[in-house]
Write a structure and sequence with these properties.
The protein has 929 residues and is α+β, with helices and mostly antiparallel strands. Helices cover 51% and strands 17% of the residues. It is built from 34 helices and 30 strands. The strands form eight sheets. Strands 12-15-20-17-18 form a five-stranded antiparallel sheet, with no helix packed on it. About 1% of the residues have low confidence.
Length: 929
């Protein structure tokens, strides 16, 4: 009975921290009127922009005729494989299958709380194993802090990263078992799960494991030859077993707009990190701040404790402050979120804190009984930090009295901190860290009784937790009611053909078009292909950073891309190319004239002219596409010259140069360009301002002009990040249209000006292409597209000797084409980023198959690794009856000692590559000019 009671006590103790974490979050949701008690969600920034829509696209793939290999809901038809393993590959993602799509944004509250709860459980499991003599309170305290750490609260918007917060304590437990007992199973399983969950974050895990192994390999409780061999073999087997995940995903990463020249990345920017952002990981887990003075005290007494963990902790601190090292921890370029490895730093720091907490409970001496040197160090250090705490709380009170909480929450709203938020957070959390320090010192000195110590520590813990939740959860929380109108648009289009849907402008996050089940050219992920991003910009669509927003551009390009339906927030006025098919309180869905299918046949001359797109005037480019496809010398788009200017100097020699006149007397400091256009035949007007191709967050031409039509401000501060494509200014007939372009700053551009498109000519052109097309069907099923042609003899008579099938699906290296008899067909690039298939004569159909590049090779490696593992397990079981297993026999030979040196050499090389090389390169580039 006593044994049973002991088990129950252990179970209860293991659940205390997880239940406390979940309970605190649920209580906070109740206080703040957040779901499930109110309409507010903690989802914002990347969770709303990427994670939730991509989870819903995954739901659409599972429930409809989409495929992870060819997902038409995103990027016009691309692989979802790498995206899945970058954002969605967590068991928690399956919850979306049982939650209404429009409730998913609210249910993120529960998913985040659940993940943090699991993190508390796994970290508690580790600390109970690593510190078996430590009190239940210590384990509760540290595991609670880990689950609700600065990293968890700063980075939960990228939901998959919390899975690594859950798994990392288990990885550490696996490493402990391997180094102390030679048991490799847990390490192998957890590493495999990490590689499966996020190949990108696993890069950082690889750095950590290599450094950890190099530091510990000569000091193992088990035969270090066997430890070396087991960690090498198990790591390689884990990598091989997950090859089907990371190999094709790596290819998608390498063609994305994320990649950059590593040397240029390391030598650019500042030597010091954006510490206003990165230090939040340390500040918001303020017990870490008490570790530093405790280490100093400990050093004065008897040297540093747990020195290898201390070294690893110090190494994980370095990238938080040194930018070149920080970049190397992120594969050479982090772009945003500059501390994805932060859970490692937090975990190691709390590991050291656990040592001091354990020591404080085991201490028997009083302050008066301490040696003189130790007494002085305790008093001096305590006085310094007590003074800092008093000073911090005075300033904190002064600033907080002015309601500065919103400024402290700057990171949660913008993903970047600033000086003001850094100062305010430093005041707040330095005070709490000082409280932790003083409580631990007083407990170690036997000044505080145990019960009072626990009560005061809990008071500090929940104060810190509440402040953290206010900063990272409560302040940026938002109402999710607008999702109802968006998801009400789902299943409102009755069209059995292939079509795409676009927003007129960016009303909501671009991935939501695919999330409500409609095929879309839009995309915002970390894996958006660079070629696709740049192609869409050339064609006049809005794009910036890693985002392709399929809004804007012209009706002609929309027709080629089969953007047959458009979402707008108002009823289209006097637009002959738009007819309302559905509306709700916030949005309209309008039908448009497009090609019947996103494919058409072209001859060799057209292909040669349009295979590549130059960076040029986007109107001229569209005219060129029109003339080539229609085989005509007539242009579809007509340029209009300005009728008047004031306050500016305009020069169109080569590029377009618009300079604000220094003698401009206008109080606004702006100049003006006027267009007075007599419209006779029905015509649509467009305006463009574009200069270069890039994935920059901000372009130099942004916010250059305001555009007025007939005295009404139609667009302000164009172009800007959400709207930098070709603008439609409306459709007009039999009237004079006066357009004023207010110039706000000097700029130069390759494409600039006003142009018009005659509506009848556009309709006639699209009708002509549709009527002359030999294609009779375009069907997508799973990862294949079937394109059926008309009668074989009729088609062969019409086709030239060399012809191409242009297909408006992105060509990212995943597509393979076959004729109706299975013969492979050649694939080329068309319009830079799309697909052209070389057609033989007498062909009646084409089958396009999408398989991620590297998937076939990856699956072969993974299957081979699985078979090898199974065979090894069987042989190992047989040999164990005769003494030792197969791996132990191999690694017990005298030559296995060289594995130790291999690990040490690799660790040194990794240290040089991550910590020395980037710093030396930066310093050299700085001083060499």
């Amino acid at each position: 009975m006593q044994k049973d009671n002991s088990k129950i006590v252990k179970i209860v103790e293991s659940l205390l921290s997880p239940l406390a974490v979940f309970g605190v979050l649920i209580i906070y949701f109740y206080i703040k009127d957040m779901y499930p008690f109110g309409p507010d969600t903690l989802a914002s920034v990347d969770m709303k922009q990427q994670v939730i829509p991509l989870m819903l696209q995954w739901k659409e793939i599972l429930t409809n005729e989409q495929s992870v290999f060819l997902n038409s809901l995103n990027s016009g038809g691309s692989s979802f494989w790498g995206i899945f393993f970058f954002f969605v590959s967590s068991p928690f993602s399956l919850i979306t299958l049982i939650v209404d799509s429009n409730k998913t944004v609210l249910f993120m509250n529960i998913i985040v709380a659940s993940k943090m709860t699991f993190a508390a459980y796994t970290s508690g499991l580790f600390y109970r194993k690593a510190f078996p003599r430590s009190s239940s309170f210590n384990v509760f305290l540290i595991s609670f802090m880990y689950a609700l750490s600065g990293f968890s609260l700063m980075f939960f918007q990228n939901l998959i990263w919390l899975d690594f917060v859950i798994l990392f304590p288990l990885l550490m437990l696996g490493l402990n078992e391997l180094f102390s007992k030679g048991k490799v199973i847990l390490y192998f399983i957890v590493l495999t799960l990490m590689l499966f969950t996020s190949y990108y974050l696993s890069y950082m895990i690889a750095i950590f494991v290599i450094l950890y192994t190099g530091l510990n390999i000569r000091n193992t409780a088990y035969d270090n030859r066997q430890v070396s061999g087991k960690i090498i073999v198990s790591s390689l087997m884990s990598v091989a077993l997950t090859s089907f995940v990371w190999l094709p995903s790596l290819n998608e990463y390498l063609i994305s707009a994320r990649t950059t020249n590593i040397v240029n990345s390391l030598t650019s920017g500042s030597f010091i990190t954006y510490y206003e952002t990165t230090t939040g990981i340390l500040l918001s887990t303020s017990l870490l701040l008490s570790v530093y003075p405790l280490l100093i005290t400990s050093y004065w007494e008897r040297g540093f404790p747990k020195n290898r963990i201390l070294i690893l902790f110090a190494l994980s601190i370095v990238p938080i402050f040194i930018e070149p090292v920080n970049k190397m921890w992120h594969t050479g370029n982090y772009q945003a979120f500059p501390a994805r490895y932060g859970y490692i730093t937090v975990f190691l720091g709390l590991y050291l804190a656990m040592h001091f907490l354990e020591e404080s409970h085991s201490s028997r001496s009083s302050l008066c009984e301490l040696p003189a040197a130790r007494r002085r160090s305790t008093i001096i250090t305590g006085s310094i930090f007590a003074s800092a705490a008093v000073y911090a709380v005075i300033l904190h009170t002064k600033y907080m009295s002015e309601n500065k909480l919103n400024e402290m929450a700057r990171y949660a709203k913008t993903l970047w901190g600033d000086q003001q938020s850094f100062i305010l957070m430093s005041f707040s959390f330095l005070f709490i860290g000082a409280v932790y320090y003083l409580l631990i010192v007083l407990r170690k000195s036997q000044v505080l009784p145990k019960t009072l110590f626990i009560a005061l520590m809990l008071l500090a813990l929940f104060s810190e937790t509440y402040l953290n939740l206010e900063i990272y959860v409560g302040t940026p929380s938002n109402n999710a009611d607008n999702y109802h109108s968006i998801f009400d648009l789902k299943d409102r289009i009755d069209d059995n053909e292939f079509y795409r849907v676009k927003p007129k402008t960016k009303y909501f996050d671009v991935n939501l078009v695919g999330a409500i089940g409609y095929n879309s050219l839009s995309s915002y992920t970390s894996l958006t292909p660079e070629k696709y991003l740049f192609t869409m910009k050339k064609l006049g669509y809005s794009s910036y950073w890693m985002e392709v927003n399929s809004s804007h551009s012209t009706d002609f390009i929309d027709a080629l891309m089969v953007n047959r339906y458009e979402i707008s927030d108002s009823m289209p006025k006097d637009d002959s190319n738009r007819s309302i098919i559905y509306s709700n309180a916030d949005y309209f869905i309008a039908g448009k004239t497009t090609l019947k299918y996103p494919a058409f046949v072209i001859d060799e001359a057209v292909f040669n002219s349009l295979s590549k797109l130059e960076i040029r005037d986007r109107t001229d480019l569209q005219n060129e596409i029109y003339k080539q496809l229609l085989n005509t010398d007539t242009e579809l788009f007509r340029h209009y010259e300005s009728t008047e200017t004031d306050g500016i100097t305009y020069d169109a020699t080569g590029k377009h140069y618009v300079n604000l006149d220094s003698r401009n007397n206008d109080d606004s400091g702006a100049g003006n360009i006027y267009y007075d256009i007599q419209i006779n035949n029905r015509q649509k007007l467009y305006f463009d301002l574009f200069d270069r191709i890039s994935a920059n967050l901000v372009e130099h031409i942004n916010e250059s002009v305001n555009i007025y039509v007939n005295g009404e401000l139609l667009w302000s501060k164009y172009p800007e990040k959400n709207s930098n494509g070709i603008l439609c200014l409306g459709e007009y007939e039999n009237e004079i249209v006066r357009i004023r372009v207010e110039v706000l700053k000097t700029f130069d551009a390759v494409s600039f000006g006003l142009f018009g498109m005659e509506t009848k000519q556009f309709f006639d052109s699209i009708r002509s292409i549709n009527e002359s097309s030999p294609i009779i069907s375009f069907d997508q099923s799973e990862n294949e597209v079937f394109i059926q042609f008309a009668d074989r003899n009729e088609l062969s008579r019409d086709l030239p000797d060399i012809s191409y099938l242009a297909v408006m699906l992105p060509n990212n290296g995943n597509l393979k084409a076959y004729s109706e008899n299975g013969s492979p067909l050649q694939i080329r690039n068309f319009l830079d980023g799309f697909t052209a298939i070389v057609l033989p004569k007498y062909i009646t159909g084409v089958r396009l198959v999408s398989v991620p590049k590297g998937f076939t090779e990856g699956i072969i490696i993974s299957i081979s690794a699985f078979i090898l593992i199974v065979i090894s397990m069987v042989v190992d079981k047989i040999l164990r009856h005769k003494g030792r297993g197969v791996l132990s026999r191999i690694l017990s030979c005298k030559y296995a000692v060289s594995l130790n040196w291999i690990i040490i050499v690799v660790s040194v090389l990794v240290f040089i590559a991550v910590y020395v090389f980037p710093v030396v390169l930066y310093v050299y580039s700085t001083f060499s000019g």
